[in-house]
Each structure stands twice: as C-alpha cells, then as structure tokens.
C-alpha cells in the first residue's frame, strides 16, 4: 500500500495523556507520510484549534475528534470509550459539557491526592498539574509523579499498588452514559466510534450483544484496526461491523513516550489504515446529517 494513502484516526496529544503537542503530532504525521490524522484527546477539545491550524500550515488533512469515557450498563463494565470524529470544535454542546467534565475531573484528582497523602505519600495537586502540562490530568500523570518522587520503581507499579480499581488511591470517574456520549458527538456533527473493543475483557458473544445495543443507540462505527489486535481479532471486529451495519474505523492510539512501543500510523508495526476508511466514515456522516436536515 502506498504510504501516502494511510491514515491514523486515534491519537493523543499532551492536552490529555500524550507527550506531543497538537502541532507536534501533525509534524510527525507529515514526516511519517500519513495522508490524514485525527486528534482524539480524552474528554477535551483543548488541542483542536492548534491541531487544525497546524494541518493547514503543514499541508496534511487534520480531523477534529475526541475520546469520551462513558458508563456502560452491560456486563458490569465500568467504562467504555467512544471516539468522536469530524465534529465541530465550536459546537455549544461540546463546550458546555467540557466545563462540567472539567469540574468533575478536578474533584476526582483532589480526592486521589488526599488518599495518597493518607498513605504517607507527599504528593500535591500542584505536582500533578505541573506534570500534566495541560488541563487534563489522568492516572498516568499520577504515576509519573510517584515515579519521579521515588515512591515506585516503574510506572506500572503505581497502578498495581495505588491507582487501579480496588486500590487505596483509586477514585472512580464521574461519567456520562454511553448513550449521552453518542448523542453529544452527533449533536456536534460528528461520527461516534466504539474504541478498542477487545480491551474491555468481554467474550465474543458479549461483544456481539454490546455492539447490538450500541448500534440501537445510534453508534456509527467500530475500531476494526488497532495497535494490539491479532489478525483474528481484526477479522472478528470486521464481522461485527458488517453484522450491525457499523462503519470500520481504526487508529494506533498513539501517546508518544507514554506508550513508547506504539508508533504513529503503524502502531506496533501491524497497521496500515487506508484513506478509504475515512472517506467511508465521512460519507456516512454526510448522509446521516442530510437525513436530519
């Protein structure tokens, strides 16, 4: 496949938990020979203005996106991720909900800092914010600070000992429902995609039920191409997409140095997503929005 015809529809900048700036992602995509790239930071649109300007500056197609965490009611699954692509960053619904989410995040982060303090770990919210750089703080930033201060020997240890569900410093997120996530993306003019379905520890029959349920809620697509998929998993995702009339999507889930084994565009070396995937998604969105007009 011609490298200049490949894309990446799932990436993160330092506005959430990646290490590249939004413009830095665009520059890297250009260097990698990608034709198009989407920025899908977790629960924020803060990087999109810089990202879109960088696309014009460097001559590469940039697709505005987001990755939302949603509460799922099936199989006691605490959280699913819904990627939104091709949305309008200036949509009022997005900006209103981002304010609500921002306050919920800060409340959670302060609770986690307080719980670490009760364990005798000298961590402040200022330490975490400085490590994060932007407004979005994730557990990865807590892990970075714990490592920097010598409380752990590896970043993974932070999750095993403190930051995972059931551990003493973990605080659950306040989430929208998956239906609300899908509706929010649609109201912003975007396409809703179920991100990395294999990461939810569900059996194939459970994934089938999940896709059926989400399709009925208006889900547009599913990530059929992802850095960690085996060939059989990729085939299974494509079967699910076909069965429930969901558009195939995909991306590397690039985070820069926070996931050093995953490269932009190629993931672990197994990705080469054709531009036709984005064309299909974009055409689907046009038809859907035409029907609403």
Please, could you describe this protein's structure?
- The protein is globular, with a radius of gyration of 19 Å.
- α1 (22-32) packs parallel to α2, α4 (125-132) packs across α5 (139-148) and α5 (139-148) packs across α6 (155-163).
- The model has no long low-confidence stretch (mean pLDDT 93).
- Strands 1, 2, 3, 4, 5, 6, 7, 8 and 9 form a 9-stranded mixed sheet that branches.
- β2, α2 (48-58) and β3 form a beta-alpha-beta unit.
- It folds into 2 domains: 3-90 and 177-292, Metal-dependent hydrolases (TIM Barrel, Alpha-Beta Barrel), CATH 3.20.20; 99-163, Orthogonal Bundle (DNA polymerase, domain 1), CATH 1.10.150.650.
- Helices cover 44% and strands 15% of the residues.
- With 293 residues, the chain is α/β, with parallel strands linked by helices.
